[in-house]
Amino acid sequence: MYIEKIQSPADLKAMDLNALRIVCDETRAAVLNRVSKHGGHVGPNLGFVEATVALHYVFNAPTDKLVFDVSHQCYPHKVLTGRANGFLGDVDDMNAISGYSSPAESPVYDNFEVGHTSTSISLATGLQKARDIKGTTENIIAIIGDGSLSGGEAFEGLDEASELGTGIIIVVNDNEMSIAENHGGIYKNLRALRESNGKCQHNWFKSWDFEYKYLEEGNDVEKLIELFRSVKDTCKPTVVHIHTEKGHGFQPAVNDKESWHWGAPFNPETGESLMKSSGEDYQTLFADWMLREMKNDPYLIAVTAGTPTAAGFTLPKRQEAGAQHIDMGIAEEQACAMASGMAKGGLRPVWTVYSTFIQRTYDQIAQDLCINSNPAVINVMWGGSGTMNDITHICLFDIPMLCSIPGLIYLAPTTCEEYFAMLKWAIRQDKMPVALRVPSNGVYHTAEAVDEQYAYEPVYKVVHKGSKVAVVAAGSFFQKGENVVKLLADKGIDATLINPRYLNAVDAKTLNALMADHQLVVTLEDGCKDGGFGERIASFYSTIDMKVLVGGIKKDLYDRFDQTQLFRDNRLLDEQIVEDVLQIIK
Amino acid sequence: MYIEKIQSPADLKAMDLNALRIVCDETRAAVLNRVSKHGGHVGPNLGFVEATVALHYVFNAPTDKLVFDVSHQCYPHKVLTGRANGFLGDVDDMNAISGYSSPAESPVYDNFEVGHTSTSISLATGLQKARDIKGTTENIIAIIGDGSLSGGEAFEGLDEASELGTGIIIVVNDNEMSIAENHGGIYKNLRALRESNGKCQHNWFKSWDFEYKYLEEGNDVEKLIELFRSVKDTCKPTVVHIHTEKGHGFQPAVNDKESWHWGAPFNPETGESLMKSSGEDYQTLFADWMLREMKNDPYLIAVTAGTPTAAGFTLPKRQEAGAQHIDMGIAEEQACAMASGMAKGGLRPVWTVYSTFIQRTYDQIAQDLCINSNPAVINVMWGGSGTMNDITHICLFDIPMLCSIPGLIYLAPTTCEEYFAMLKWAIRQDKMPVALRVPSNGVYHTAEAVDEQYAYEPVYKVVHKGSKVAVVAAGSFFQKGENVVKLLADKGIDATLINPRYLNAVDAKTLNALMADHQLVVTLEDGCKDGGFGERIASFYSTIDMKVLVGGIKKDLYDRFDQTQLFRDNRLLDEQIVEDVLQIIK
A156 and B397 in contact by Cβ < 8 A? Predict the structure, then answer.
């Protein structure tokens, strides 16, 4: 086996073409081995094996700098830069290697921590400028998938790379797919370029003054080597457009490119998933609810930005929704602004986005949406500590972010029934934008009646009226609040339990009422507490004799954390909260 | 005079070409009248007079929808849609009309509140989708300047407009300028299009599959009418590229387009400014300091994104800096990511940005910069209540935003000497990104020695040690803190005064030390208090017997506020703070 012995790309240099082809096969097998046992990004990595081998054969990393976009295609690079063990070893070996480009893991070969999309060209232009100022001559190579081209930052990066005018090589890995299918006018040009072997009349990249080369056989290592050699050491902004096959070499991934973009562990022979369905999930519930509602409401529009399955809009459901679903490509700014425009035009758009990606559109939420008071709905998925945990995908910051934007209501439902009641209200009201933090701690049901109408000013719901201690437990931490109240009852304390429902502001009336017979308010939120929900309650009481225990997660850079350990470190385990309460009110 | 009688664009329809030309002249004179007395955007509005008259003559607003970008070219539209009084009347009449597109002001003719750039196409695609779903046939017209094309949201909007495939008219108002000169590869294509009368080989817009028309004479109302008639009621995505002259009809603005982009009141005969220089300003101090430092440090780079004068980098200073200044066009995402890349490559970039525009790049600060711990410096200008006050340009939100991003230090200097000491430290350290909130309450000097070294963990500075009450006064509110301490002394209270210096986290040691002999901590910050600095201190003390009075501005949608009134409403006048302190500690 070659790849076990490859410690650095230099080991490729002496190989002949046959050996390089074997390295490709072994690298592909290693990637498949990891993703089948550990899960991860399947299709984009499989399609980029030959290009990675060719890049490392032709260029001289780490002197030459490779910058990956979104990291969906960086596994072969990891295999060839001293991290093969993360693909061939046991589960611990695999866990030691992240799924993303990471200088913390490989300071020599990985230039940036990357997990959000459309960033590679912009980051690379910084290295380019540094090279030009320092007068050195290394190659700067940005790698970007066709899907990632739809994000505004990629456009800005292309614009700057052209402006700088010095050498940079932008490898456009065109596998004709985003995470799902591509959306955006640019893809018409990519298709025309593919169909004309790079020679169509109006070339988007050439219009931008890039040198441009096209290669149809993007999974042919020999042709890739020839191509990369032809642009090596260029002193001009250069786009190398290669046509690859997403999932290349693994038939299930070739046959169903969307499902195999990312996968949980699976049987590598058959492609069958090893994960059992874990019952209800909010993605599916949301999509099915929307499809039912759409039948009676032609103005209800499901909006997604490159991740339609965040909203449960699988391909058949997208087809069922027809014009009532729209996906922007990976362009959250456009999604938010267009949702505002749709609401202004009389439609009822509901834009679904993962917590970690909503930060890609702060200004559009503030400016295009909130100062315009257009009643678009934002459906925030996976906000909290129980979802994604890579440093690039932390979902703990949506509360501080959204709650610092004026003109926005941010609701935190606690059960399935409450979620859909809030969603229905948010869609039907016509005064202002409303965001919902979809619970991320599983689907809880309630038999209690839930309110159908919601006020524009916060009204907390007192679920149980006790005394001395009040627990204000928001959204995905509501069930934790229930547990804490039960444990306090065991200690003889009949604590009040409050579902605040609103994250964006405090309910002064309810909080004032607590002052009569409470000494301590405990706030619980499943997110970063710095700048979050609980601090606002602490501030509300800060000039009077009410103690507040703010429960949330300390602002920090977290990577691949364990949720229980995170809770322990932040004193968020149920029994720790009880201990702290008893300590304060003793 | 025609324009005094024009109540709506319908009044234009019966006019002949001669009358329309008079309307153009009168509109231009009205715009000049307003900006000379009131200040405002001069050049872009003057250049768009004929196009606006032609648009309103050909199309039928409000049925047809006009969406303006950044609002720098919306004054002629206001003149023709019932708001001429804001251009011809007295100062009160002028104050009643905002400088930006505003449905709050004209619900019929203005579709969106707009002040940040690059949004018009994205917003218009929402109206387009609404029209298509509802089956109506109105024209949707997005207007965008060439400068605004450099922002990522504009690209995303173009991408979607092409994808939708139905009728939309995008008017590209090409005056060969951004606020300053243009930066970005796209401008090479615009130039080639101008020089070839729209016929160059690789047309950026046609590559995107837009129908495309070019008009060289963009200030000729007759030709504009002909052009707009030719695309009216199109069912295809269409770009109308018109070449206009920034400042057209007012020679000082034509001669110096950058200085006349926006102007304070001036003599309309000579162009001479009526504003007297008000002494030192941080823009000039910063630019001069950087230029001096650059001479000894070739790796020091000044970065701007479309607003070089935010950093004091006027044209002569940009020329002096040469390759050590880089402007991205209006592309803050690119500026932030590229700064991260530059820092990674060994340069020392300092990116200067206005507070209101930093929110255009939340994700790049979090992902491209902070998780990578690259030591780029962000220089935040005009954060606070004493700078811009339009609803689109509020500068109160940078503290909540930046302080919820892990891996970032946010420093708040209080004097000129402290600012440059902090800046120097931030540039020379190599561990992590540092942002500085440049004081916005004038340039104060201190004769006291300021620290040259700063720790990575917050260390507050106790300026005066008293007892009972401690005033923690941050950045631009430090002088307010000094005043409050003086007023308290008059009441017999020897209050402690603290310059916290760090906004991003609390200094537990200093705060703990206060517990011995203080009852109340007053926090003062010149920004939104919801999610801000003071709430974190309230939270720090929330389980013990220390009262905290959080002084800051309530989160809300503010528009053209008066600073003193804002202070009064938020109990931030010096004497109000003293009253509240006495009330609490009584």
Answer: no
| Inter-chain residue contact B132 with A370, CB threshold 8 Å | no
- Show Cβ contacts of residue A86 under 8 Å, excluding neighbours closer than 6 positions: A34, A78, A93, A94, A96, A97
Shortest distance between the Cα of B529 and any Cα of chain A, in A, equals 9
What order of strands is seen across the sheet that includes strand A325-327?
A325-327, A300-304, A348-354, A377-381, A434-437, A409-411
Tell me the two tokens of residue A191.
């298709």
B376: nearest CA in chain A? A126
CB pairs under 8 A between A and B: 409
Helices (H), A59-185: 75-80, 85-88, 91-96, 120-134, 152-164
Contacts of B159 in chain A (CB under 8 A): 150, 184-186, 329, 331, 334
- List, in sequence order, the alpha helices (H) in A208-331: 221-231, 251-255, 282-296, 315-321
Q: What is the pLDDT along chain B (586 residues), one digit of tens a residue?
A: 899 999 999 999 999 999 999 999 999 999 999 999 999 999 999 999 999 999 999 999 999 999 999 999 999 999 999 999 999 999 899 999 999 999 999 999 999 999 999 999 999 999 999 999 999 999 999 999 999 999 999 999 999 999 999 999 999 999 999 888 999 999 999 999 999 999 999 999 999 999 999 999 999 999 999 999 999 999 999 999 999 999 999 999 999 999 999 988 999 888 888 877 779 999 999 999 999 999 999 999 999 999 999 999 999 999 999 999 999 999 999 999 999 999 999 999 999 999 999 999 999 999 999 999 999 999 999 999 999 999 999 999 999 999 999 999 999 999 999 999 999 999 999 999 999 999 999 999 999 999 999 999 999 999 999 999 999 999 999 999 999 999 999 999 999 999 999 999 999 999 999 999 999 999 999 999 999 999 999 999 999 999 999 999 999 999 999 999 999 999 999 999 999 999 999 8
Under a CB-based contact definition with an 8 Å cutoff, are residues A473 and A497 in contact? yes
Q: Choose among A126, A331, A372: nearest Cβ to B337.
A: A126
Nearest by CB to B208, from A186, A529, A532: name it: A186
DSSP letter (8 states) at residue A276: P
ipTM above 0.95, yes or no: yes
Residues of chain A with Cβ-Cβ distance to B324 below 8 Å are 133
3-state secondary structure at position A254: helix
Length of chain B, in residues = 586
Residue B531 to residue A529, Cβ atoms within 8 A: no
Rg for chain A, CA atoms, rounded: 26
pTM (2 d.p.): 0.97
Do the Cβ atoms of B126 and A344 come within 8 Å?
Answer: yes
- What is the distance in angstroms between the Cα of B158 and the nearest Cα belonging to chain A? 8
**Pairwise CB contact (< 8 Å): A189 & B208:** yes
Q: Which region holds residue B571: left if phi is over 0, alpha if psi is between -120 and 50, else beta?
A: left
Using the Cβ of A191 and the Cβ atoms of chain B, whether some distance falls under 8 Å is answered with: no
Q: Nearest CA to A305 among A411, A142, A433, A148?
A: A148
Count each helix (H run) and each strand (E run) in chain B, helices first. Answer: 24, 18
β partners of residue A368: none
Distance CA A239, CA B241 (A): 27
Q: Which of A68, A110, A367 to mutate to test the interface with B (most CBs of B within 10 A)?
A: A367
Q: What are phi and psi of A124, to 5 degrees?
A: -65, -35
Whether B143 and B69 have beta carbons less than 8 Å apart is answered as: yes
What is the number of alpha carbons within 13 Å of residue A144 lying toward its C-beta?
28
- Strand, coil or helix: B46: helix
For residue A160, which residues of chain B lie inside 8 Å, CB to CB? 183-185, 328-329, 331, 334, 338
B289 Cα to chain A: minimum distance (Å)? 20
